[in-house]
Each structure stands twice: as C-alpha cells, then as structure tokens.
Amino acid sequence: MTTKVNERALVLEMLLTVNEEGQYSHLVLRDVLDKYQYLGKQERAFLTRLMEGTLERQLTLDYVIDQFSKTRVKKMKPLIRNLMRMSVYQIMYMDSVPDSAVCNEAVKLARKRGFSGLSGFVNGVLRSVARGWREVRFPNLSVTYSMPEWIVDIWTENYGEEKTRQILEGLTAENRLTIRTNLSAVTPEELVNKLKAEGVTVHAVPELPYAFEISGLDYLAGLKSFKEGLFYVQDVSSMLVAETAAPKKNDYVIDVCAAPGGKSTHMAELLQGSGMVEARDLTEMKVELIRENISRMGFENIRAVQQNATCFDADSEEKADVLIADLPCSGLGVLAKKTDLKYKMNPETETEVAALQREILDTVCRYVKPEGTLMYSTCTISRIENEENAGWFAEKHPEFDLEWEKQIFPSDITDGFYIAKFIRRSR
C-alpha cells in the first residue's frame, strides 16, 4: 500500500530547491516524477503544472503579493515566500482549485513546517489576494509576462515592442511535447499506430513528416514505444539542424557539444547506417547520457566520446564532412521548458557565454574538411550570441561562407532557436 502524497508539499520542496539552493527546475522535477512514478496521471499533472507555472510566473506573482502584503516578498522567510507564490499561482491561474481550498492548504503547510506563528499572515494575505487580484494593473511587459527587465529591454531594442510581445506570448504558450520518429526502426505511420494503441494522442507537425506532437500520456518512460527507441523527444527547431545540414552517405560527422544526443542521433539516422557520427561532450556524465540514447535508439554508426570543445584535437583536423556546434548559450529560447533560467542569467553571464562560443568556434572550425559544412546553433534569442557571433566568425575565418541563417522565435510548437550554416571553401 502506497503512502498518501501531498502534492503541494512536494511542490513547495521543489521550489525551495530551485529558488533557494539554485538547482535547475527541469532536473528537480524529473527526479521527483521518477521517484513518485506510482502517482496517478492527475496528481502528476497537478504537481507539474503547479511547479512549472509558479516558476514561470514568479515575477508576476511577486508583484501581486506585494500589493496585498505589508511584508514584501523579498523580505519573507524562504519557505513562506515560496508557499505564497505557489498559492497565489493557484488562485490566479488554476480555475479548478477553489480559493478557499488554496488558503486552507497553505495554512496547513505553514503549520506543518513549523510556522504556526505566521499562519494568520498567510491566511490573511491569500484571502486578500483572492478578493482583489483582478483589480491589479501590471506596469510593464516585464511584470505582465514575468520576464526580467534586462531581457525585455534587449529584445525591445533589437526587435521592437510588438515583436517582443509576440516572443513573450510564445514563451508563455502551452508547452507541447514533440517527438522525432526513429526512421531506422519504424515508419511515421507505424509509430502513430503504436502510440495510439498505447493511449497517446498524436498530431502531425506540418514542417516535418517524421515529427509529431504527443499528449495524453502518463509517464514517458513507461511507453513501450519509447523504451524500444522508436522515437526521440526533440523540439522541432532542434530537428532543423540535422535537416539543414543534410549529410551525405558515408559522411563523417563531429558533434562537439552533443549531450543528450538529439542532433547526433538524428544525423546518424539520416546517414542510414553509413558513415560515422562522433558525439562529444565535456563530462563523463554527459557522455553517459548520449550513450544511453544511442543504446535506446539502436544506432551503430555513432559513438560517444569525452572531449573538451575548447581544446584543439589535432587528430580531428580537417576530418569532418559535417561539424555540429550547438553551443552552450543563455537558453532564452527554451524558457517555456526551463522556466527558471531567466532568473539565473544576467547581462554579464550572457556576454561570458558569447565569448565562450567564439572560443569554441575558433577551435573546432579546423576540424571541417574543405567543402565541408559547419552548423552553428543555439537555443536562445540573442543577437550577441547568434547573428553577431556568426558575423564575427565569417569575418575572422574567410575560408567559411555563411550559406544560410535563421532566428526561430518561440511558438506553441517550437522553441526559440538560431541556426547558421557555413560551407568551407575548397583550396
């Protein structure tokens, strides 16, 4: 007999781990879902939405709480601060949860965690929020969409206010799960039939015939089709990297920052069993993630190797027909999936990341054969990391021609993503 689990208590612990200890939300949530696999579909959906939603809307929630509390959010004790945020999220964004239940459960949690003396404060503020939050007016895009001001300011400067609003709408749209068919194991039609037989709802993605949006599943790793490697979870914009690279039969491919292996396995699949993909990453932990996905997908023309992309590997010089450089970035294009990244990033770290990207590009471009392809990509929306870095690279390395580039903005079906395709001239 399983013990009754309090989903709100679990969410509170996750929020404390992310906000107060600095852990990454998607990893914290994954670990909890793995630990509590026995929870029902409804319970898992509730704690996932409450966790991700509270983090996504945190700046908005803090603004609202500050309108009704004499103690500002930043001055509250960490547990109370996070308890208030998740409670106000339920009041504002989860219509199926009665406000009275939210208040009562928050008071119980405060008392259970040793804050009986603050239970009256929690109850009073939450009931005031429940009565009056609809009258609160947000002062700017930052508060409206819960996005740090420095990011909003940069996007507004680069793209204008209306486009920035569209980007923010895309990032707060419902987060959909997309997959890529393992064409070496199954046809798209066969995969659809297998998924439907497992009770999964499947919708085609117009851009790519082997890509689908899936929903209605309980636990991804519980699907037989997933365990058999019939598909790979990947965003559509990420799939476009291998699609645009268009590897030829028997090509040798190097992916310098490959974990967890989405683009590498896609390249191996497109090579149809020929050639070789060398999927590299910095740490053994990341390399092991790649190996797990290689094993699950069943490819033999791919291997995972531990290698620091900033260190030149003489054995790889002019060896790659295609080089994939999907580099570390600010991650501002994937905030719909990694909701806490926007609070961890700042202008200084963005500049540092852009410099690291240049260092890696400067190193790994030497691995590309004459007439070979270099694919540069990031999962962000940032001119200094994307267009400016591509321009810098083309100027410093005139032996490479920029053939194609695209900034993809977030929507309900794609992450924000940047892709640039370079071709190395023949001698």
Question: What distinguishing features does this structure have?
Answer:
427 residues, alpha/beta, 7-stranded mixed beta sheet, 4-stranded antiparallel beta sheet, 11 strands, 47% helix
Principal-axes shape call? globular
| Arithmetic mean of pLDDT | 95
Approximate helicity band: 40-55%
Strand order of the largest sheet: 7-6-5-8-9-11-10
Q: Number of DSSP strands?
A: 11
> Which parts are unreliable, with pLDDT below 50 for 5 consecutive residues or more?
none
Strand content: 15-25%
Run of helices and strands: HHHHHHHHHHEHEEHEHEHEHEEHHEHEE
- Describe the main β-sheet briefly: 7 strands, mixed
Q: Specify Rg, calculated over alpha carbons.
A: 23 Å
Judged by helices, strands and strand pairing, the structural class is alpha/beta
Separation, N- and C-terminal Cα atoms: 71 Å
Descriptive overview:
- With 427 residues, the chain is an alpha/beta fold.
- Helix content is 47%, strand content 16%.
- It has helices spanning 7-19, 25-35, 41-56, 58-68, 78-93, 99-112, 119-132, 141-145, 149-159, 161-171, 188-197, 224-227, 236-245, 262-270, 284-297, 341-344, 347-364, 387-396, and strands at residues 177-181, 201-204, 211-215, 231-233, 252-255, 276-281, 302-306, 320-326, 368-378, 400-408, 417-424.
- The strands form two sheets. It has a seven-stranded mixed beta sheet, sandwiched between helices. Strands 2-3-1-4 form a four-stranded antiparallel beta sheet, covered by helices on one side.
- The chain is globular.
